[in-house]
Design a protein that fits this description.
By secondary structure, the protein is α+β, with helices and mostly antiparallel strands. It has four domains: 249 residues, Rhopdopsin 7-helix transmembrane proteins, CATH 1.20.1070; 96 residues, Beta-Lactamase, CATH 3.30.450.40; 70 residues; 122 residues, 2-Layer Sandwich (Heat Shock Protein 90). 63% of the residues lie in helices and 11% in strands. The chain is built from 19 helices and ten strands. The protein is elongated, with a radius of gyration of 41 Å. The two termini are 21 Å apart.
Length: 582
């Protein structure tokens, strides 16, 4: 079953945005507390500017929350703070007034930045980057003559009373600002020409409003006063209204307009253009692009007509109408997978479907990988069932031989001995005694056969006792280190561990010419370590015989790992790590 993959980053972002919202409310209230007591009839202008600041902040926070991977929200919020610092010039507090004078036009530079960066929040061309940098230089550097040479500027800022330099600074700043506006218009016009009709219907009004707003705000004072005769407070109110429309327009464009998914698709396009080594899997790319950390991809298995996750394990699509939803991903009209997402976070399934079309080929590639993993898992499961069935049969045969035929041979040997003891004929007695010895030899052979099939000690007492019995029968000195508790391991793991020890000792005894062996069995967390060492001649290999190859296959079936280190003249170490739980 598919479940959300974890939303820690979403919660962290939510907490950060809440803190920002609290800070914005506090700053606005702080400014009002400074200016309203002495504002008189103009207090509505101050209220309007603080309200516009809050509008910027609300629009930026909303866009940031709904589109975490899109930088427009953060950029709108920066515009709000630029507006706030610029309006501090009206507080009457010297330090704050100086800060407001320095940043009086910074909000216009941010507005240019928003125009160039829409819809993804990233500057996509060199022309846009140069224009935006020029906008910030005009707003911050060319603002300097307007306070350095103006005696009416706050005391810490004014350095000289130079009306000529002040007038020159005004002309230069306005001319440079106009040049930035013209360059912005050219860049945006080219973008409009390249856009399709649907996108042009959104971009055209948005770009037109942004350009008009950033031109009217600095020019509005002269225009509205000379042509319309507006008083200063009304002109300030109009400028505030124009500024207030900018964040709303951009936030709506990011969240609801025809470009609601353009930024995300741009991110996915960049993802597709990355080299294989730098490109993450489709699911993480989609999570970043769509802003849903719980998003996941499941894959369609056409042969079994089921869903599987990336590891090949069975998965399911969420039920319709719930908090989570899923949309199909198709390649050439053929279903290859589905994107499962949080429907409360992403309200437009078409957005997810469009993103799925971008990454469809990558999803198909991952589907094939998941199908291969599922087949491999099914093969391993099938092999594990065969091994388990074989072990059960070996145990049954060993038990039957031990409890049935072996007992019968022992009874026959006893009867033969009784006949020999009761016979008066020497020849008959010798023949019967010979028959009894033959029966004893057959019983011994049977015991060895039973032990090779499945040691009775392993069946009746467990791995520790069986290993101790095996070590005790070794003709070469053998040290045993046990760190397990019998009965705590599955039968398949006990059997596999025993055969690792038996095969390791048998091979060492045949080929190593060692003077001593060491066997270690211990549990380390959820893994069982089985190790056989000798101090012989070394040079052993998995390819040397079928026994070790078969042993490696058996260890692999139970999801274990078998390794061997055998350097010439330095002995051999056979080491297996087995899961303690199947």
């Amino acid at each position: 079953m598919v479940t959300p993959s974890g939303t820690r980053s979403s919660r962290s972002l939510g907490r950060a945005l809440v803190l920002l919202a609290v800070a914005v409310l506090f700053l606005g209230a702080f400014q009002l507390a400074l200016v309203l007591p002495t504002a008189g009839a103009d207090r509505w202008v101050h209220l309007l500017f603080v309200g516009v600041f809050w509008v910027y902040a609300a629009a930026g926070l909303m866009a940031w929350w709904r589109r975490p991977s899109n930088r427009m929200g953060a950029l709108i919020l920066v515009g709000g703070f630029a507006l706030f610092t610029g309006s501090l010039a009206n507080t009457g507090v010297p330090v704050l007034t100086a800060l407001g004078t320095i940043t009086a036009t910074a909000v216009l530079a941010v507005a240019f930045h928003l125009l160039h960066a829409f819809p993804s929040g990233r500057l996509r061309s060199r022309a846009s980057r140069l224009t935006v940098v020029a906008g910030y230089l005009v707003a911050l550097v060319l603002q300097a003559p307007l306070y350095l040479f103006d005696p009416a500027a706050p005391a810490p800022l004014a350095v000289a009373d130079r009306p000529d330099l002040l007038g020159l600074g005004v002309v230069v700043q306005r001319s440079a600002g106009l040049a930035v506006a013209v360059a912005t218009t050219v860049v945006l016009a080219r973008r409009l020409l390249r856009a399709d009709a649907a996108h042009r219907r959104v971009l055209g009004p948005l770009f037109a409003y942004g350009i008009v707003a950033v031109l009217l705000i600095p020019a509005g004072s002269t225009l509205f006063e000379a042509v319309l005769g507006m008083p200063a407070t009304v002109r300030a109110g109009v400028q505030a209204a124009l500024l207030g429309g900018i964040p709303v327009a951009f936030a709506l464009g990011v969240l609801r307009g025809g470009f609601a998914r353009t930024g995300e698709l741009e991110e996915l396009g960049a993802w597709l253009g990355a080299t294989d080594g730098a490109r993450p899997a489709p699911a993480p790319a989609l999570r970043r692009a769509l802003g849903d950390e719980s998003l996941d991809i499941v894959f369609w298995m056409p042969e079994s007509r089921t869903w599987a996750d990336s590891s090949g394990a069975p998965a399911h699509l969420p039920a319709p109408g719930g908090e989570r939803s899923g949309v199909d991903v198709e390649v050439g009209g053929r279903r290859v997978g589905a994107i499962v997402y949080d429907a409360s976070l992403i309200g437009d399934p078409e957005l997810v479907r469009s993103a799925g079309r971008v990454v469809a080929i990558a999803v198909e590639r991952e589907r094939l990988t998941a199908e291969l993993l599922a087949s491999q898992a099914a093969l391993l499961t099938s092999r594990a069932r065969l091994v388990a069935a074989a072990d059960r049969e070996r145990r049954r045969i060993a038990q039957d031989l031990h409890d049935g035929l072996q007992v019968q041979l022992v009874l026959l040997a006893l009867e033969a001995q009784q006949v020999a003891n009761g016979s008066g004929s020497t020849i008959t007695r010798e023949q019967v005694t010979s028959l009894r010895k033959g029966i004893d030899d057959a019983a011994g052979d049977l015991r060895r056969l039973v032990h090779d099939v499945m040691p009775s000690t392993l069946i009746e007492h467990g791995l520790s006792a069986a290993t101790e019995d095996l070590v005790d029968r070794m003709p070469v000195p053998t040290r045993l280190h046990l760190g397990i508790t019998d009965g705590a391991l599955p039968e398949a793991i006990e059997s596999t561990a025993y055969f690792v020890v038996a095969e390791g000792l048998a091979n060492a005894l045949k080929h190593s010419r060692a003077a001593a062996f060491t066997v270690r069995i211990e549990r380390r967390g959820d893994r069982l370590l089985v190790q056989v060492d000798d101090d012989g001649v070394g040079g052993a290999s998995f390819h040397a015989g079928r026994g070790l190859r078969g042993l490696a296959d058996r260890v692999e079936v139970v999801n274990g790992r078998l390794e061997m280190q055998s350097h010439a003249g330095r002995g051999t170490r056979l080491r297996a790590e087995l899961p303690c739980v199947l």
